[in-house]
Amino acid sequence: MLAEALVLVALPLLLAAAAGWDLASFTIPNFLQGALIACFVAFAAAARLGAPDIGLHLLAGSIGLAVGFTLFALGYIGGGDAKLFAAVVLWLGLRDLMSYALVATVLGGVLTLALLGLRRLPLPALLARQTWILRLHDSHAGIPYGVALAAGVLVILPGTEIFRLAAAG
Hints:
169 residues
């Protein structure tokens, strides 16, 4: 029951918070990644993951951290996005890493194209009063990839190993 609640409630809520924070401020606070990691530890215990499975999830998280910080160093994503990617991949493990990376990349591309298109249009007066929307509309601003990273998890979640483990528990 706890494993189910962590996968179906805690994980989506934390991802929604990260996406919302990124949209509003182009930052993802460290406490959200920390909460994701803490919830994974609780999930691993509740789902009774064995040491080899936990090791594979830790390996996936390490790969996610290396990939994320490489993309950060190259200037493609922000540091919060890199840490969010690693925390998410810790949850998903090696089995679902590639499908997640593909879906998140496609969603990131769609988000980028949508924002670039919207930035070419004038803002309606009502929206121009919102600071966070002005920031999103700024042509010199980055792209809040945390939105795509969070959405990518939600898209693939029903087909993941953690979903199956939560349902079995």
